[in-house]
Every structure is written in C-alpha cells, then in structure tokens.
Amino acid sequence: MAADARVFRLGVLAFSDIGTEAPEGDVFIADLAKQGYVVGRNLAIERRFSRKDGLDAAAAALVALKVDVIFAVDGTPAALAAKRATSSIPIVFKSADPVAFGLVSSLARPGGNLTGVSIQGAVITSKEMESMANALGALRSLAYILPVGARSLPWYPSFVAASTSAAKALGVQVEFHEVSGFAAYEPLIRDLVSRGVNAAALMEGPVALMPTGVEYERIAALFLRHRLPAIGPARFGFLLHCDFAEALMAERIAYIVGRILGGTKPTELPVEEFSALRLILNLKTAHALGITIPRPLLLRADEVIQ
Fold this sequence. Notes:
Layout: E1 8-14, H1 26-34, E2 43-49, H2 55-64, E3 69-72, H3 76-85, E4 91-95, E5 114-119, H4 121-136, E6 141-147, H5 156-170, E7 173-179, H6 185-194, E8 199-202, H7 213-225, E9 230-231, E10 240-244, H8 246-261, E11 272-274, E12 277-282, H9 283-289, H10 295-300, E13 303-305
Parallel strand pairs: 1-2, 1-3, 3-4, 4-5, 5-11, 6-7, 6-8, 8-9, 12-13
Antiparallel strand pairs: 10-12
C-alpha cells in the first residue's frame, strides 16, 4: 500500500493530440487506486501529448519534471522517445515487439530502465483470418495491404511468418501489397476483385502513414463498393477486426506501474506477454455485402456493430 505522506508523480506520454479524455484511461487509474495510489491524494499525473516531430520534446518535458515513472501510452513510438530522453527514470510500455525495436534486451530480462507488456500480434493475425473464413463460409485467398515503408519495420518478418503459418493451417493463399496513399487503394481493389481474391486485410505500418478515421471510412467504402470483404477497424465500416482487450491490458500495466512506484526496479519485472483478444463484427457491412454471419461466430464476438 502506498504511503499517503508522499505524492508520487506519474508521467504519461501519449503519441496523440490533446483530447478531452485522459489517454491512460479510467481502468488504469482505478487499478492504481486499488494498489493505494490515488489521484489527488498521493498521486499526481503529468501528461504530455505529441504527434510526429514533437514526441521527443514531450518526453524531454516529462524528464525535466522529474516524474517517478513514465507510462508510454500509445505503443512503441512513445516508448522509444521516452528511452531516448532518459536512462534512469523507469519507463513502462506496451509494444508489439519490444526486443526487435530495441526497447529491452529480452522479455525475461529486460535490463535498463524499461519494462511493460509485449503485445502478441501473431495471435490477432490468426484469429482475424479464421474469423473471416467463418464469416464467408470458405476463404481461399487473402490480400494484405500495407503502407509503403512497413516492410522495413522490425516486426514485418515476424508478421509475414505468422500470417503465412495461419494461412497454411487454413488452406488460404496470402499475398502482400504496398500502397502509397488513398489514391492507390481503388486500382488495387479492382485488381484483387478481377483476380477472384476472396478478402483483404489492412496492415499497420509507420504511424505517420496510417490512415486517419476519415480515410479509414473512405477506404472501407471502396471495399464495400467493389463488394470485397475486408479486415480493418469495424467501427469505420470494415467487416471485422480483432483488437486487444484494452481493459485487461490496462490492469496489467497499472500493476507494473504500481510495483515500480512501490520501489521495484524495472529490471526485476519481466516484460509480460499479452494475447487476450476481442472480436468486433460489423453487421451493417455484412448485410450490405450479402453475407450472413453464422450464429456461432456472432456468439463469439465481443462487440457487434449494427
């Protein structure tokens, strides 16, 4: 239990614009309180937000404030910026491949001043492919679409290996295509449809090249217009996608942050592997495509958009 006599300072580094909601989330704050670290009593939170070129400056600002811990909220870019800014203040992160990105030496023995949660992206790849096969009744071919530059990222080889392995298990042919921007999507979609490719999936890439919410909606509309089922953010109109159970992840990260505030060193806390997933289906899109989602898949879904 944290002692009330001292006020701990938590730095939150978000790779995003300033918003109305705290980027660390309510679940994270509530779980810290369960450990005895209560905002306004013995915990103060310093938040710094940034997009692209301002991230290093935001990280440096938290270091200048001499916070006790930095929580890099929005994945690897924020964690790398925090690591560049300090080698002494503990940093807690969530990252798709923290070893490949150089955040830690290994998951079991992170070394240095960083630890956190390793997001197991290969699990998402397999579940999304399986879910699409269930939704369509049969899946023979799937095209992954990625922004230019994704092939150079450290996690790309492991992603290709995971998707190829999942495809082999399901009897699916996979292919990979790069797009340089929104204008490149429609010609590619037309080509995929003309060749009889059954479905497509949007891959992540360099953060600066990822579509905005409006762009996701426009891309989803293109897939719908050409009647090609696609994996992508379901809330923007794609048929389905999987994401991580953010509430559970927030609980684990709050536990790690609480341990560090209580005096445990990052080197004593192995990076935790996290693979709990949520399946989100968009029934409106399914109906527009003429797809009847099987009841077993509907029952497995964690969220259904109608």
